Amino acid sequence: MSLIRVTGGRVYDPANGIDGEVRDIWISDGRIVAAPSDPSTPVARTVDATNMVVMAGGVDMHCHIAGPKVNAARKMRPEDKRNAPKIERTKHTRSGTTGSVPSTFATGYLYAGLGYTTAFDAAVPPLAARHVHEELHDTPIIDKGFYVLMGNNHYVMKQIAANEPQRLSAYIAWLLGAAKGYAVKLVNPGGVEVWKSTGGNASQLDVPVTHFGVAPRQILRECSRAVMEMNLPHSVHIHCNNLGMPGNWRTTLDTMQALEGHRGHLTHIQFHSYGGDPDDQDTFGSRVPELVDYVNSHTNLTVDVGQVMFGETTSMTGDGPLGYFLHKVMGRKWFSADTEMEAGCGIVPITYKNKSLVHSLQWAIGLE
Fold first, then answer.
1. Which end of the chain has fewer beta carbons closer than 10 Å to its terminal beta carbon, N or C?
2. Residue 178 has pLDDT above 80, yes or no
3. What is the β-pairing status of strands 143-149 and 183-187?
4. Given pLDDT bands bounded at 50, 70 and 90, which one contains residue 3?
5. How does pLDDT run across 51-71, given as a tens digit for each residue?
């Protein structure tokens, strides 16, 4: 058993009640262990962490670092890379480009530099899974995984409409296994299919999806049920309908209730916590307290923030109608794609401005 000793660092470990203590950390075979009882135990390596913070590695549970949407964004945004710092080849690193959509090697280096150990891409169509694995294999240092898009999958909707819960569960299990994915992702359930077939959207949870006769509420309920019954490590990962629209907090609350007690994770909830009238931007505001109260009183729910950071970025989403909406609002270039019978995507450059009322409110709502 070879031991590594990290000494002199200021340790933060809330799970074990350690808040800034200067102490040693012992590691054996990749795991943190208790200090050896015998002071003469040989130490293979000592790391001096004096004046440094020692804490658990970060886990990015929702990112976009691989897959067709990311590669399309890399190609459509050369100007983003020209203005961003370059990563030069060195004795220990490969070269790469950065910006809002870094190259694969740069992605690994940048995450590691921020103290992250793990990242999950949140939107992978099953048809693209093989190449996503190849990209993730090319991304160094960090552990990787991804969520498989299913919220607008034709077979999923057909089995829900036919009231075939066992077939639905079997298909979800097979799809996760075939794609080698980690979790089930629902993006704008039903809305992406409506966008692809009619150019519309699914703004109401109880309006059936065109050609399928199944409503978003049913997709949410049945997929969350299947995931919970299979006891998957991560609950169904939900990008709610009506992202970014004033008044969408009601849709978010309806989505939580549609789970009917099944586990669910609502992602980038900042974008889904708005009050106001969709036809009157002057009424745009926060309805966070109502959602916080509901989440805190329902243990089946978890959320992440989706914090807005000011500056240039690239919106990459599996929500096709949202991509088009952002294109119309921003007036910038736009990419949309249809993954047959499975999913879609939209890509638009965005500059979040601290002098913009809407962007500043989004930033504040995220903090709230």
1. N
2. yes
3. parallel
4. very high
5. 999 999 999 999 999 999 999
Find where tokens 């169904």 sit: 236
Q: What percent of the chain has pLDDT over 70?
A: 100
Q: Helix (H, G, I), strand (E, B), or coil: what is residue 350?
A: strand
Q: Where are the beta strands (DSSP E) in 84-233?
A: 86-87, 96-97, 116-124, 143-149, 183-187
Taking the domains of the chain in order of start, what are their residue ranges? 3-55, 59-239
Alpha-carbon gap, residue 101 to 310, rounded angstroms: 16
Are the CB atoms for 257 and 217 separated by under 8 Å?
no
| Lookup: tokens for 60 | 């990015």
d(Cα 150, Cα 43) in Å, to the nearest integer? Answer: 49
- Kindly tell me if the per-residue pLDDT of 1 is higher than 90: no
* The pairing of beta strand 18-22 with beta strand 58-63: unpaired
Count of H-run helices and E-run strands, the chain: 12, 21
Angular region, 231: left φ>0, alpha ψ -120 to 50, beta rest: left
Q: Quick one: average pLDDT of 15-36? A: 93
Cβ within 8 Å of residue 352, ≥6 positions away: 308, 309, 310, 311, 313, 359, 362, 363
State the Cα–Cα distance between residues 46 and 27, nearest whole angstrom: 10
User: What are residue 145's phi and psi, to 5 degrees?
Assistant: -165, 180
- By the 8 A CB rule, do 302 and 262 touch? no
Closest CA to 94 of 145, 140, 158, 55: 140
Distance separating alpha carbons of residues 99 and 101, to the nearest angstrom? 6
Which amino acid would we find at residue 109?
Answer: Y
The mean pLDDT of 164-182, rounded to a whole number, is 98
CA-based nearest residue to 72, from 245, 269, 249, 320: 320
Residue 84: CB atoms within 10 Å: 16
Q: What is the DSSP letter of 232?
A: -
Candidates 47, 34, 55; CA nearest to 117 is 55
Q: What is the mean pLDDT of residues 242-264?
A: 98
Please give the pLDDT value at position 14. 92
- State if pTM tops 0.90: yes
- Is 245 in contact with 281 (CB distance < 8 Å)? no
